[in-house]
Amino acid sequence: MDMSTTSLSMEQQFKLEVLREQVKSLSQDQAQEYLLEVMRQNMVKENLLKYWMKKM
Question: Whole-structure pTM over 0.90, yes or no?
Fold first, then answer.
């Protein structure tokens, strides 16, 4: 895997920094819920990628 697939673009880095500032104001419960939802969405994305790879 080359660096372009594992590195973040400048736009992604900016979005991550904006998100970092936004989550600072979350309570611990809100942060935990947010983390769990992000992980759930990542798992769905992983499942979709696996499904599409099988179809190719």
Answer: no
